[in-house]
Amino acid sequence: MAAAAAVSSSFFTCRFNALSVLLVVLGFVTILHFNKCEAQLSPTFYDSTCPNVSAIVREQLVLAQSSDPRIFASLIRLFFHDCFTDGCEASLLLDNTTEIKSEKFARPNNNSARGFEVIDAVKTAVESSCPGVVSCADILAIAAEASVYLSEGPSWTVLLGRKDGRTTNFTAANNLPSPFDNVTVLRQKFTDVGLNDTDLVALSGAHTFGRAQCFTFIRRLYNFSDGNPDPSLNTTYLAELQQRCPQGGNGSVLNNLDLDTPDVFDNKYYTNLQNLNGLLTTDQDLLSAADTNASTAPDVNRFAADQNVFFESFIQGMIKMGNIAVLTGSNGEVRGNCRVVNGASGSQLAIQLRNSEASSAEEI
Length: 364
Ligand code: HEM
Prior knowledge:
The active site is at residue 81. By secondary structure, this protein is mostly helical.
């Protein structure tokens, strides 16, 4: 009897434990599911709180482009560098403080990433219509799409609802894809953030506009292998680039990434590669690196053959990239000033300064 009671009590305990475990697991699954739902971005996120946000961003971008023809390219690059560094949470926009080590000074960004003032202007315009609602991370996403569209590229529905982070990751920023990486490393860096080979080739197509400094490709021009220039560089293009980037010259001189249509978002980047007219080693390697191009060359040729196929893959890649490690719901915040986390002493000062600028502008 005692044994039976012990058995039944242990059975009960066991059943109770099993039940608890089941409940805990169910609860966990529910939480996970809830988080998953919460983590989803939405095209209608600002429909009731800031319905004109996309129009406001576009208006500011058009204004900026009138004095800076390169700005669209620079802005999409900001989105790429932000998303690849701990996710699309606007960490790249944060300035140095005692607590924050700004990613702006990491190797790939320093004296290279640009457009921060334009993002400030967009944020100010958005804040004046919808105060405290739209995150800097979403502004980067909307600006990236608008930049492509305003450069004659495709338009797409941007998923929204990202929150801004409160931290930076200088080490990760230093490890962004580099023009000195080989295809194997590039593929790995894309895989690490959930992007595949087609995404790598399609997103590299953003080099259909914008500029690159001589130092990022000069090795190809003089001493690539055995003291010779890169054999996968068209000789006419080589001569032109040697003129623009002489040995021992100024490494920061700018060059069009797309020699054919430098400010238009089209598929000429890929036809350039077919003609050995890619600017960076990492561009040309997608087609020409004989030992490693098997996973990338077919997509280069597909995109060169049909611009619509490129646009479709590019949009898919941008949406995937825009989903990398996003903060949503109660995670993160909507910064008042894209350069500082909320509550930092600088954020208040910046908001006050902006407000006083706005009121003096109104007075004028
Ligand atoms: C695949 C790996 C990539 C590498 C190694 C790479 C590297 C570079 C380099 C070295 C520059 C020139 C920077 C300078 O000279 O200051 C540049 C510019 C640029 N990159 Fe990339 N990039 C990559 C992928 C991407 C992606 C995925 C995008 C966007 C989706 C992008 C968009 C741009 C744009 C638009 C510019 C011109 C920016 C301007 O004119 O301000 N790149 N990239």
